[in-house]
């Protein structure tokens, strides 16, 4: 376990989690909150939730989609979009797959080559020290939290090759659930993810992250960056 996660775990063993939001409703100091979040997600084996994704890009209409997501270690994800069109974004730990049944087509890529913004969620699985990934982490007041008492943090990545300029996360300081993630891409596009019905350590099978498609589905390999 990383040093940051170990220190946070010691703190949590000494003090009940609900007391992290101590002192007349005040939020915990930034370093303490980050350590607690890092420790929590480092201990999780899996996470499931309902989500709403709102995508906005310059010159394009706003797109709203809804579905369910399962995250599991190591680096596995299953995003099942139910509305308005069914599609799947799946990571098996080595490759990512985008499958749209109506188009009878799968686009696949190695994780390190994937440009889909959902690949950034790998950093919230507790598998890497956030301080090593992000050059700056700060508490902000704009955008305002969706719920009173939540904490909003901005994460600025060290490496622009990750494909985004910043990540904004809204965190419940008591449960430490990340209930909203806003990702700004380098081209000015913005994706908002709103999470609800969050469940921790749900039973999952590796089959959840194995893509099964009907015969006749066309499989394309994403072009590797030059």
Concise description?
The protein has 226 residues and is mainly beta. 13% of the residues lie in helices and 40% in strands.
Q: How would you characterize the overall build of this protein?
A:
The protein is mainly β and 226 residues long. The chain contains 3 helices and 12 strands. The chain has helices at residues 3-14, 30-43, 130-133, and strands at 46-56, 63-72, 76-83, 87-92, 95-100, 105-110, 134-139, 151-157, 164-171, 178-185, 190-200, 218-221. Strands 7-8-9-10-11-1-2-3-4-5-6-12 form a 12-stranded mixed β-sheet. The relative contact order is 0.19. Mean pLDDT is 79; it is low at 1-26.
Write the layout of secondary structure elements.
Elements: H1 3-14, H2 30-43, E1 46-56, E2 63-72, E3 76-83, E4 87-92, E5 95-100, E6 105-110, H3 130-133, E7 134-139, E8 151-157, E9 164-171, E10 178-185, E11 190-200, E12 218-221
């Amino acid at each position: 376990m990383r040093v940051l996660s170990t220190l946070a775990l010691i703190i949590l063993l000494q003090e009940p989690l609900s007391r992290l939001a101590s002192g007349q409703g005040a939020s915990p100091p930034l370093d303490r909150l980050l350590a607690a979040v890092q420790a929590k997600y480092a201990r999780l084996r899996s996470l499931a939730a309902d989500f709403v994704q709102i995508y906005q890009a310059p010159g394009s209409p706003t797109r709203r989609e809804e579905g369910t997501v399962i995250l599991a270690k190591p680096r596995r994800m299953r995003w099942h979009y139910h509305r308005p069109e069914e599609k799947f974004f799946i990571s098996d730990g080595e490759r990512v797959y985008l499958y749209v049944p109506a188009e009878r087509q799968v686009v696949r890529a190695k994780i390190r080559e994937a440009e889909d913004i959902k690949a950034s969620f790998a950093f919230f699985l507790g598998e890497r020290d956030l301080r090593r990934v992000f050059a700056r982490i700060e508490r902000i007041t704009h955008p305002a939290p969706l719920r009173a008492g939540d904490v909003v943090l901005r994460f600025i990545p060290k490496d622009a090759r990750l494909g985004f300029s910043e990540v904004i996360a809204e965190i419940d300081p008591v449960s430490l659930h990340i209930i909203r993630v806003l990702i700004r891409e380098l081209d000015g596009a913005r994706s908002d993810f709103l999470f609800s019905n969050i469940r921790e350590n749900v039973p999952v099978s590796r089959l959840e992250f194995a893509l099964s498609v009907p015969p006749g589905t066309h499989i394309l390999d994403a072009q590797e960056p030059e």
